[in-house]
Amino acid sequence: MTTASTLIEQLAALKITSAGVTSPVQHNAVENVADWKAELNGKSLPDGVTGAPVFTKTLVLKPKLPKSQPTSPVMVIAKDETDTNMTSLAKELKLKELRFANADLLSGFFATEKGSVSPFSLSQVAEADRSNVTIVVDSTIVADSESYIAFHPLVSSQTIFVKSSELLAYIKSLNGFKSYVVVDFAELASKNSAPAAAPAAPKASSQKAKPAAAAAAAEPTTTNTDGIQALKEDDFPSWYQQVLTRSDMLEYYDVSGCYIIRPWAFHVWDSIQTFFDGEIRKLKVKNCSFPMFVSSRVLEREKDHIEGFAPEVAWVTKAGSSDLEEPIALRPTSETVMYPYYAKWIRSHRDLPLRLNQWCNVVRWEFKNPQPFLRTREFLWQEGHCAYLHEREADEEARAILTLYRRVYEELLAVPVVEGRKSEKEKFAGAHYTTSIEGYIPATGRGIQAATSHNLGQNFSKMFDIAVEDPDVTAKKLYAWQTSWGLSTRTIGVMVMVHGDNKGLVMPPRVSEIQVIVIPCGITVKHSDEQRKAIHDACHDAAKALIDAGIRAEVDDRENYSPGFKFNHWEVRGVPIRLEIGPKDLEKKSTVAVRRDKLTKSFIPVSELAQQVSSLLDTIHNDMLAKATAEFAANRKLIQKWEDFVPALNNKAICVIPWCNREACEDEIKTRSANETTLGQPEDSRAPSMGAKSLCIPYDQSAYPPIKAGETKCVQCGKDAECYALFGRSY
Amino acid sequence: MTTASTLIEQLAALKITSAGVTSPVQHNAVENVADWKAELNGKSLPDGVTGAPVFTKTLVLKPKLPKSQPTSPVMVIAKDETDTNMTSLAKELKLKELRFANADLLSGFFATEKGSVSPFSLSQVAEADRSNVTIVVDSTIVADSESYIAFHPLVSSQTIFVKSSELLAYIKSLNGFKSYVVVDFAELASKNSAPAAAPAAPKASSQKAKPAAAAAAAEPTTTNTDGIQALKEDDFPSWYQQVLTRSDMLEYYDVSGCYIIRPWAFHVWDSIQTFFDGEIRKLKVKNCSFPMFVSSRVLEREKDHIEGFAPEVAWVTKAGSSDLEEPIALRPTSETVMYPYYAKWIRSHRDLPLRLNQWCNVVRWEFKNPQPFLRTREFLWQEGHCAYLHEREADEEARAILTLYRRVYEELLAVPVVEGRKSEKEKFAGAHYTTSIEGYIPATGRGIQAATSHNLGQNFSKMFDIAVEDPDVTAKKLYAWQTSWGLSTRTIGVMVMVHGDNKGLVMPPRVSEIQVIVIPCGITVKHSDEQRKAIHDACHDAAKALIDAGIRAEVDDRENYSPGFKFNHWEVRGVPIRLEIGPKDLEKKSTVAVRRDKLTKSFIPVSELAQQVSSLLDTIHNDMLAKATAEFAANRKLIQKWEDFVPALNNKAICVIPWCNREACEDEIKTRSANETTLGQPEDSRAPSMGAKSLCIPYDQSAYPPIKAGETKCVQCGKDAECYALFGRSY
């Protein structure tokens, strides 16, 4: 449960620091707006509050729904004076009827009570329930950019004051909700002169609302259909959430930070597993399974390592009704789980190399905002852990695995990445060095670490005594050289972010559970039963021909759904090719193939289906990769002087700079870029003004002018540059 | 950490209840035997203690080992008067040197201190360390069956008295240790008249030790080699543990009840996954991934269900250094995790059937003795969860899956099982009914539940509101019919127990990571380099021919290891076929194939390798299955009168009885069979005298005389029999 003070911390993190947010005005608890006004009357308001504050009402309404439907409340945030006619609103939202929610719904759903309800109650809604809430914002609030608006920070005995832009930023910062709907109640009333409804002209002359249409254009309204309402370019977080849930990839779960990976997404992970597992077997890596429980004694054995993970470790302390004698950790990664046994198993140089991998779940109890696939408290991954006699072998393997990771992204997901080495600051806790592949999300201009492969050096082997006698020198002890490397379900999130569009998901063909969806089209009432059957048969024949050629094809022959509905259904899910067969196609022994990535049509003769579809799938893959590669390349800007650095970031670029490779300079880059962004640019909640971190030092330095010793200088500090490095805002 | 009082509970559970065990004699803490005798002098001893108690010393010794070796202490349990000469002992145990352990070792390894050391300190040794401990028992203790022996129950301020048989039973009850070694110190001393050692004749005339050889035959001594020392028929628990660890299938882990599944065992699981996953895909089941965390609110929603699991649920209550606001459970199974979302996703009959599966880990924090693969606190499994519109569909699926489970056992693991339905008492918590396959472990005569498939009926759908409108009747609500079904890594344990022999594991060919191991043989110093090379080449050619034919073959061409060493190495690991190629075979263009299951030899011409080996692998599979099937069949005894029931159990049989199918009668069978066993038979720690439970009501009732209504009576209660049921002692 959020408390008023943690809420205020959250608001501060969102840079919502208007007058009164940090120190609410205290007063007696109130139950309605009249009491509230009375309580504040004469109280001294916080310094920043200029002008008369605007009082608001926050209503929680309940539509009439069949009992089998989940509770789907509507929250209306309106100025006190606005006439929020519920009949008109119900009509506008296409709901049967709206009534005030009862105390049970307020307490059960919003963990609040009458009088205390405010927009901030939204943060108390369980994640699993959020997509069922409709949020309505009075257009007069949206239009009023100057006034301070009074709200309760969860309790009705306190009041804070925020501006409308801050209110909207807060709502957007919450995960899992549908986009809010801006409603012009005055216009609604004039539109809906329903007999039962009293004429609902605005009561107050102060209303200078923009027309609802304009407000709606800025903030797309939504009624809950199958399609995607949010625009990728305008409201990326909502877009991402809608694409994931409406494509049936993901479901929000009632434990925060955890998500359900549905079959449509799980197939992607399955494809990655099949490819990668096959490749590492060739490298003689064997699969195994270690426990997910770690005793604290073992977990804490490598100091640097545990310092990196300790704040995120989840602890089991109870079983049944008994307290455990010692708390037991859930693995955040398995170095310390495995290596005591490596020490036991590795007795002689003949026991080396030891190469193990496991596909498992790990737990990192992040307190930052969770995000499906990208930052979750439990996630699936593989972790490889190898031990070698020689440094060179560990070097080579770390790179070989990194290359496999790149191939997963490029060859399966059609996502370009850059191979490189992490800076000292950004390397894995306890590693000798870390290599990574780095991706790029064009919509936000942020880099993303796509996978890492570490040469652990001898750090862990010394700590855990993984050592053998030198086979060449008697009585000389050699510590093993180790690697560890991991690839997680984050892959899926990156794939969605890079390829998705405003119609939904765009699935790279090689990982799509269905590669071709065959849809019977053009059947009308005038067609005979034989004609219908002929078309359906043609669809199934086409699918069979494709399946026989190893292509994953299905027919959508559901009755009672129009072709248009089906087109939309499969577009949202991103199926690479839609194959349409109608009466005319049947005559011409042809089919219509529609590419999901470009939405272009082509005609494929039935006789050439398997061969042409197969090559079209490859073309789609190559085109998707080429497009994303061009976009990433165009946004990797070579920056030669600091003045260009922050403007490039603000322009959604990743910066390539000649760099001195010093941690102090890296810190400075982060601080300076954060400060300058905040100073120079208007705040934009969608592209947060975070500082730039080093992403990697690319292995391929040849794309840039050679570094000349003593001549090429670091862009930030002016010291001698050592290399080119990628810096950017990142996930 | 064990405390004295929990130790006493453990001893009571082992039926070690000798005089003084339940209420130790309290005294001042002592540091040596002299003080101890003084402390007890004049104290009134517990009632049962007759005769003068025997005082003992428990010594912890440390052999000199290279630093890279793990700590491997030797514990000597001897009568106080026995001269435990360390030099002789070291020689006998083939150790370099033995010294007294220091305080660090006592506290770090045994969690004890000088003066408090006793055999009971063994229960404090971490599981991972146990296999490194050598336990030596003075033969004069073993021989003295009458006296009460004094020991400290973990603290030196208390004394309990046990008989020697109870001491040995206690030691055997501990998991993870090598078998203890019985040593006749008197004989050692006479054998080793080493110059430095003082002549070590027995000091006390009371010694009537059996010769060490006899003791050793009864309790096989062990020096830590690669092979299996314990005999399957004599000491099944030690045998099982040795087979698992020495075949590199499993490693003990430092969190109790958790184990490391090493690649040699994981490949078995992998093979099962590949087969079963392919089969359920044909049934249109899709894979997905649900979180392992469950909120208590959701977990507790189905009352019967949670009652079944609550005592074993592990709870996360802390993350980093913060307490969670609400404890979160780790899934023991996923019904309540998944079904709230089934309710959300299933809105219309068109959303049915919904068929999902996940391969994952689950946690059941059992407080009973853990056992690798069979009863572990975390285990791997698949769990399928389907929802249907009609009862019939759920019935059919539950059975279809059960048949797949049977096929996993029979077709992959060569293990016979019986398909049947569980009694009401034994069904899954919350299910409508449970079907299961039941296996049989000949060595212990116990049944084992091998997998279960449940028809959940509408119990969960009513609780979670998984309902649709009847497609045929307007406004009629239909609750879904559900199934859930699971197969776990228990499979591996059953496979090992059924097939293993006194040489180690016997791997069923279809799941063995290596099916054929090719070993160059017969090379001596008189052979030329060319001859050596020719043999090695022939081995690699043979392996290649096999691999090309889809057979998993490898060459063991390690230098410095004799063929005999290699034979033993792969026999312990159970590789189905050993292929030997020596100089004479080379001449004859032949090979020698040795079957692991029967240890028989045959000659296979090089030209027919692929074909003959392939068919030999099938023969081995069929022979293994046939042998186990015959053994199971021979031990399923049709019992017609109660007097034969317990004798059959004691004879390691499973009883098939005409049964009334009433829970009260089932309870009675358990109680009666337990009581009669204890009364009639001598106690045997290896075949525990537990009562018989119902295993299943076999689907195939045709093997037994038809049940005649009103005529055929229940064997236990004499009421009308409804069916034949399998009863037995079970895991």
Question: How are the secondary structure elements laid out?
Answer:
The structure is a homodimer of 731-residue chains.
Chain A: H1 4-13, E1 25-26, H2 33-40, E2 56-63, E3 74-79, H3 86-92, E4 98-100, H4 103-110, H5 127-130, E5 134-138, H6 139-143, E6 149-151, E7 158-162, H7 164-173, E8 181-183, H8 185-191, H9 212-218, H10 236-246, E9 250-252, E10 259-261, H11 263-282, E11 286-287, E12 293-295, H12 296-299, H13 303-309, E13 314-319, E14 322-330, H14 335-345, E15 354-363, E16 378-388, H15 391-412, E17 418-421, E18 433-441, E19 446-457, H16 459-464, E20 467-469, E21 477-479, E22 481-488, H17 490-499, E23 516-520, H18 529-548, E24 553-555, H19 563-573, E25 577-581, H20 583-588, E26 590-595, E27 601-605, H21 609-634, E28 636-638, H22 645-650, E29 654-659, H23 663-680, E30 693-698, E31 723-728
Parallel strand pairs in A: 3-5, 5-8, 11-15, 23-24, 23-25, 28-29
Antiparallel strand pairs in A: 1-7, 2-3, 2-4, 6-7, 9-10, 12-14, 13-14, 15-16, 16-22, 17-18, 17-30, 18-19, 19-22, 20-21, 25-26, 26-27, 29-31, 30-31
Helix pairs in contact in A: 11-15, 18-21
